[in-house]
Amino acid sequence: MKLIRAQFSNFRLLRDLTIDFATDPKRPLTVVRAANESGKTTMLNALQWGLYGDTALPNGGEGMRLHPIDWDAEADGGRVPIMVTIEFEVTSIRRSPTGFKETRKRYRLIRSANEDVDGHRFNRTQSSVRLFALTDAGDTPLPQPEAVIADELPFELRDVFFTDGDRALSFIEADVAVSTKRDRVQRAIRSLLGLGVIKDAMRHIEKTAVEINKAARKLGGSEELGTIANRLDQIETDRERLIAELTDVRSSHANLDGQIVDIDRRVTAALEKGDREKLASDIASTRKEIDKIDVQLEAAVKEHAALFRGIDLARGVLGTALAPAYAKLDALYDRKEIPSATIPVLEDRLGLGSCICGESLSDDNEAGASRRRHVCELIEKSRQADDIQKMVTALYFGAKALGPSTDSESRAFREAFGAVVEKRDGLQDLRDENGRKLRALELQLDEMPDTDVANLRKARREFENQKERVKYREGQIDTQLSGLGSERAGLVERRDSLLREQSKGARILAELEVATDISGVLRRSYDRITSEELAKVSNLTNEIFLDMIGADPDQGALIRRAEVSKEFDILVFGPSNRKLDPDRDLNGASRRALTLAFILALTKVSEVEAPNVIDTPLGMMSGFVKRSALRKAAGLSSQLILFLTHSEIEGCETILDEMAGKVVTLTNPAHFPRMLVNDPGTPVRQVLACGCNHRSHCSLCERIDDETVASVA
Amino acid sequence: MNDRKIISIILEEAKSLPERCEGYRDEVVAAVGDILEYERQHRVAGTNIQQKITDKCNAAGRFLADRRGAAGGDVD
Amino acid sequence: MSDKYFNPFASVDILVPAEFKDDFARYCQTGGRAVIDYSPFPRMVDLWFLAVCVAARKGLEPAEMDRRDTYKIIDGSIFSSDPWRVHTLMLIAIARSDEIGIVIEPRRMMNLANGLATAGFPHVIDMLKDGSAEPIWNLSEAIELLEREAA
């Protein structure tokens, strides 16, 4: 999707404003130049409101006024029509017999709502949205506009396509639970990589298999077949119910995690207010330490389990059990008793019809035929010997690692196990120590007379209890599902063998095979996209991120690489692979760069054509970092729309000369006379646009001293 | 979204399917392509997706059963 | 190690008697979100392979597989990335059959391995259970002991 044009009407400061966006692939950058309080964030909100409605507004739009604050109800009426119109273009690709077929369609989306103004109070009607397909034949209204938007710019990807520089950290911010961040990253990745469609298809195919199973039941002829089909039917119903419940339970789990993190933050704030900073920071640092140890412990346990799939285990267990085999191989090798290549000679003789000794090998007489049979047997035997020779040679040279062991090899398992024990015990002691420390600190908390803290603690305990119950239920559902899974596998096997016995069963069996095959292709594609594409996103995020911050000597020395882990965490590593906390160890510019890098990498890898609209992305960056971030972003995005202040633009003019297809300047007339040279002479408060680019100004947008404005910004 | 990429991955994954009868793999690939197209349409227009997908599977199943019948057995 | 190594077991099934199904589910991490200390084996094939090795080490007679109710845990293609496992199975087959020629008979070799695994399972299960700690520790200590005895 590419944005072409947006029109705003009575949306806060945007009383009447039209913006055209750059769509040229060679110059994909649109710059909206605006000082602070000149409508940048308003426009970001307005675009999202246009696409998604009130849910996209801060706080779900609750209590948020959309009409201009100085609306004159007496003169212009108490009902304010608010409207956002967005024109966009969508490219769709589908397979056709001649290859891939690409079509471009243009749409116009209009969202409108009314606000009834009564003094300081207002009431907003439910917004309505219409969508028109724009064709040469005219504008055709389309049903279900929300569905088109959901398909092209899914709501869950809002954080990817619309980024507010000041809170561009939703994927890495420290204030939310790990599970929440993971969830955001995971949803973004799955959605952008188109996994939703595949998942839906998988679900529907499963239902189809259930339908076919019902047909098997109706087939009759076998009572057992009917019973199995019924039971399979029941299993599917149960599985569906359990899977739905599991999704709910997992989301409450994540939600409770978030609530607990939130309470901890509030407790910290309450403690700081009550001059108990020391206690607050002790608790926070102990919790952090525990989290860190838990991660290391988990890795150590995995290392322990890895011992059971290694060669050291086999060597340790087998001991001398393989010695007879080695002795046999060695003897063969020593005696050079390797079967010779006799086949060509024998085949030659067969062709000639006479043996080396001169006897006939002809089929014409009994003796010749018998000799001929003997030679054929010899050839067959030699062939086998040849195969054996090849295999044994490969084995002899390949299996050295398993052979009689050296002193250190014969202790390899013990040594590896010893190292694991040491690591696990050490970490566990550390974990216990920190656990005791935390409990002691929490005891101090519980004994505090502060009622705020006491109430929060009570609420926390309640959440912890709820979490325990939820975890318990998760375990139960998991168990039930795995039980149903194995029961189903057994029944399917039996059903298929019964179907094979029936004449009419062939067709049903074929349908079931098709459903299984389709489902398998979809599942494998899904897994592959998740793992392979995730690795690509991770590599590209790293590349972009390092490129962006590479010139920053402060961060350059600290940061070695970034990664999107298989668990969907965005991680940053320092020297010697030490994990860094993006929120604590990175400066503001690097944090923004990291988020931008992830967003751009994700968009790029998914090959999705979609706009990246970013408000003040370069705010905390300076010099070379700013320029490399801008250049990288403009080069990677298929359509990049940046809201930039004058100071952000400073130093980047040449990049904008090269990459900006459109530049527009927004001016807030209220800035006259403090910051604007000329009086725009508008009677109402509204943002005005002019076509001035990053190097020019006109009588409307000329500022008194951009330097001063920038320093305020 | 990114249709081209998804379709090409699916085509590749379909290569590992057993050729249960002559032309089977192509039949399944076409069916998967159609099913994804149905899903896409369904997202925008809310169609009777389940029925369409079941019909698609039935048709491919009939293809397989007929060819097997004609070949006189399973060529898997 | 190269994953292009020729794996003769690629299309041969690894079988387990049905009676051990629950043990496999309990001690392997495959599928569920297992607690590693209680389910130490990363994959089912790791438990199976250890059982083969234990039977080989203890000189157990391979169980007769034909008459048993078995199920397939996976096929031998899983060894393609671990050539040393292929070698181990071949060497065990040579040692047991006293025939070099067995190396070109993957089905016979696998049949022997399946039989040995079946004979070895009860011993591995004992190794997991015997001790006062979680299965991962019991097993580690039992294997440590085996290694010491061999040295």
UniProtKB/TrEMBL annotation, chain A:
Q: Which GO terms describe its molecular function?
A: ATP hydrolysis activity
Please name one Pfam family that this protein belongs to. Answer: AAA_23
Q: Where is the Rad50/SbcC-type AAA domain?
A: 9-113
Biological process (GO), any one: double-strand break repair
Name it.
Answer: Rad50/SbcC-type AAA domain-containing protein
From TrEMBL, chain B:
Q: What is this protein called?
A: Uncharacterized protein
**In which organism is this protein found?**
Rubellimicrobium mesophilum DSM 19309
Automatic annotation (TrEMBL), chain C:
Top-rank lineage group of the source organism: Bacteria
Upper lineage: Bacteria, Pseudomonadati, Pseudomonadota, Alphaproteobacteria, Rhodobacterales
Q: Which organism is it from?
A: Rubellimicrobium mesophilum DSM 19309
Q: What is this protein called?
A: Uncharacterized protein
